Amino acid sequence: MKILTRHFDNPKLHELETYRALGGYQGLAKARGMAPQAVQEEVKKSNLRGLGGAGFPVGMKWSTVPPPEKAPERFVVANFDESEPGCFKDRVLGTRAPHQILEGLLIACHAVSARWGFVFIRGEYADQYDILKKAVAEAEAAGLCGDVKVRLMRGAGAYICGLDTALLETMEGKKAWPRQPPPFPTVVGLMGKPTVVNNVETLSMLPHILVNGGQWFADIGAKGDPARRIHPSGGTAVYSVSGDVERPGIYEFAMGTPLRQIIEAAGGVRGGRALKAVIPGGTSTPPLAASEIDVPMDFDSLRGVGSFLGAGGIVVLDETRDMVEVSHNIERFLAHESCGQCTPCREGSEWTTRILERVLEGGGVEPDLANLRRVGENIAGKVICALGDTVGMVVRGYMKKFPEDFAKRLPAKPAEAAR
Amino acid sequence: MTAKRVTFKLNGVTLEAPEGQLVIEAAKAAGVEIPHYCYHPALGNPGNCRLCVVEVAGAPKPMVSCRTQVREGLEVYTDSEPARRAQASSLELHLVNHPLDCPVCDQSGECGLQDYYMKFGRYDSQVREAKEHKRKRLEIGPHVMLDQERCVLCTRCTRFTEKITKTSELGIFGRGHKEFVDLAPGQRLDNAYSGNTVDLCPVGALTDKDFRFKVRVWYLDQTPSICADCSRGCNVSLHTNTKRPWHDEGRRLARVKPRHNPEVNQWWLCDEGRYGFKKFDEDRLGRVMRLIPYRRELAWETALDELASELRRELEALGPEGLAVVASGALSNEDWAAFKAFFVDALGCKRFLFAPQPDQLGIEDDLLRRKEKVPNLEGGKALGFGSAVASLSWERLEADLEAGKIWGLYLIERDAARFWGAKASALLSKPRLVVWQGPWKGRTGELAHFRLPATAHIEEDGHFTNFEGRIQAYQKALEPLGQARPDWSIFEGLRQRLGAAQKAAR
Ligand SMILES: Cc1cc2nc3c(=O)[nH]c(=O)nc-3n(C[C@H](O)[C@H](O)[C@H](O)COP(=O)(O)O)c2cc1C
Ligand code: SF4
Ligand code: SF4
Q1: What interface predicted TM-score (ipTM) does this complex get?
Q2: Domains in chain B and their CATH numbers?
């Protein structure tokens, strides 16, 4: 099932004329004919959940914005910071269908009565910035923006800026140190005003929901199973598939599609090798073992196998991959990107990385495994933002699912090396 | 509007607190210490140190008590196994890259890392990795030294310069474990309150340049006192070193620290008040002297006898109009009472120079500093030495001296000679009797007939009344130097010798 990528074979989709000819901006027109409250209701019905990583129900997020009487000024920010290793779907969406993002942003602005829509773009996405800038100019010239002012803002290059509250800080010109809710951005956001932050893929879904109805979108997605605390996830998700597969790229599937099917769509494991592990949602999400890939890809089912859907960055790892190396690579990234605000993440990410480094270099000692696990436990749940939780979670995930890779790196006899 | 009071449980004990109070504050009020670095009541609760984690019944993970509010029925454990484990693990992470250079660190003995390790840590180190290195021994301002390796990045110092002095000289630079505290480009930590960052820093990252390597903090005694450097009357603690006199070349007062008083100075102290204390060991008067007609040291009794009889002689011959008294707002309330009893009630003296003149005026701001650089003008005013009585100015006194109207000049702690400059010796040679009384020699001390050493306020008990009329006690922290005695006892000694006779004569 394709919603966002349906017309991606059209090389002119990024142009306003083509986009409109294919039905573009009808969703916006429809939304503008409805009361903001009614748009929110339609989106609630659709079961659309945030595709930036957290999977928070979009309609519910919007409904926490205080009414205009209480806070006349409010903002919507499209999160186009996409910095998670293994994720590149936003980049493709921005390159091929900038108007889809823009239309979604304008619908969201209408739904929460905002007069300002911002797009925060990862600094390295220079081409996408140009493409989007052109799209905004086209839309403005065609009078599509109405009374909404759309502004683009480029990031300066830090992973943490993708986290909504850090993003708001950096937009205000400050160091991107995440804020600690409450209050949540929908109440106190940019410049202290209510602000909705949504991922660009999430926003891109809105035109389709408005045109086809919330029920249509909900029916496409995963139904959920309340008894197992699996909540419905509407519509589709666009996956970035990379690593040891035959055809890396983006693939759109309905929510709840088994992971195996997505890997197969990408041509399966490269070179006929055996599958060893899959990272399902970007490198911040713990790995799945080869035996776990029949899991349905939706936000809550993945929790059952100890991971997350995240932002849908599927990284396939074949039998030649060493999980100590993989976890070291990820922890090193997280240590580099830790904003440094809170101590457990700042110190723990680097310590974890250095222990793994020593183990990789052959200097591992028997207590290292217990220590890695302990340090991980001591970080997760004790930090300001999810990056810190990830630091604690990732290495433990690899150790749990691939203990033999770690054991292999340590001296056979449990002897403490000279300290 | 006062907040509703609610009941909650702390470590199993039912307590009452205002609804919405931070758990860390409510615990403190109940005498329960929760370790923390970043939280400070004046600077907010960024929640970045993650040390104040506690167990909250029903919460899936440890909560930071600096951001958790008291509500009805809340159940908090600060000392349960999970709470203790969470606190110890945060502390462990603080120490991973700490240089552990306690033997050469001034903070040793009053360091948040040392204290918390003993109280909440006590684990065996698991660190096998090399430590992160950063810059050390950075002179970041006239008073403060920075060691980036020791810093725990609590942001207290940066928030102080941002929120309290609004000068923002300090910032946190870099990212992750490479992060460090430093000066903003082109800045120096030279605001008028820079020393407070040293108090705020929970570790040895910011230290007093002046106190570096002087004496270990555990040798110091602490005495509550009041700063005498302006009329605010900031509450201070005097840290004195008498146990190791060979450290720091015999300087008796090692440092001055603020004492928290929400009504007067909150937690702060200005740099003038904090670092001005070296004067208490410099240029002090130790001996009772008579310089004219010839220079000799005197016992107190002899000096008071001689001065009393000279005063009596002149008063009888010329009357009290020709006696001018220059007093300083540095006198204590006790001194003022004896001053009045002697000069006004006993001698009938009328010519006073009292109000602060340019010699005692300085910079004022809207945080603490007051422009009158003496502590106790109000104490004097309360006894009638307000503008009405204090009719003299330096200019007027100068004119009266020139005109030969003054036979006697009694100067208390106000260095006329310094103020008058080149004219001083000529002016001071006019009266028949010049008395200099105070803790310091001053230039006037060299030109007076009598030189009477008084104690500095740190060497006596007493009270000052600050500019708002608040009477505050200070205590004796050190023995008087040499023969120095309190001003009130000098006035009283003279009054007993001369006052009765004078009254009888009138
Ligand atoms: C460390 C970190 C990095 C993140 N980076 C991004 C990002 O690059 N893009 C994004 O859309 N969301 C990112 N998020 C999620 C955002 O905080 C936020 O949940 C999301 O933008 C909300 O939009 P959604 O509800 O539409 O997903 C990140 C979260 C974390 C913890
Ligand atoms: S958890 Fe890490 S990234 Fe998040 S605020 Fe703390 S230090 Fe920064
Ligand atoms: S220098 Fe001290 S006060 Fe400033 S951030 Fe570091 S530890 Fe905190």
Answers
A1: 0.92
A2: 5-95 (3.10.20.740), 289-505 (3.40.50.740)
